[in-house]
Amino acid sequence: MNAVDSSVIVAAFSSWHEHHETARLAMAERPHLPAHAAAEAYSVLTRLPNPYRASPGLVHEFLASTFGDRTLQVDATTVIDLLGELAQLGIVGGASYDGLIGQTVRAVGATLLTLDQRARETYDRLGVRVTSLVT
Fold it and tell me: How many domains does the chain contain in total?
């Protein structure tokens, strides 16, 4: 089973993105969607500067039609445990959100597909199985 982070979702949605075709190919495999990645992608796509900004309804429609019921989320206890793990590893700030996405994918034994080289360090430190779609 594969899942994607917001970097893949944004690129797949955005025809102008340099990795659009790569992301679209990854989406053809019908990956799962971590709930936090959905919120991140929605946030990014609806706040980009014009002319790239998308309407909230269009982004929602894209996420719903692309992923359907293939969403992943963790329970509150798991999130609290993750925060302890992040603290032990010294993962702080915005990388904490990458940690939440990574932990959600790790919890179900999936492989995370990403275009985000910066987040890769967090994923690796958490022991998430990751495939980078760019080199």
Answer: 1
What's the CA gap between 57 and 42, in Å, rounded? 10
- Alpha-carbon gap, residue 71 to 117, rounded angstroms: 23
| pTM of the predicted model over 0.85 | yes
For residues 5 and 114, the answer to whether their CB atoms sit within 8 Å is yes
Distances in whole angstroms, Cα of residue 60 to Cα of each of 21, 28, 105: 21, 19, 22
The helix-helix angle for 35-47 and 6-13 (nearest 10°) equals 40
Q: pLDDT tens across 19-49, in order?
A: 999 999 999 999 999 999 999 999 999 999 9
CATH number of the domain within which 57 lies: 3.40.50.1010
* Residue range 114-126, pLDDT digits in tens: 999 999 999 999 9
Could you give the C-alpha distances from 123 to 69, 71, 130, in angstroms and in order?
Answer: 24, 19, 7
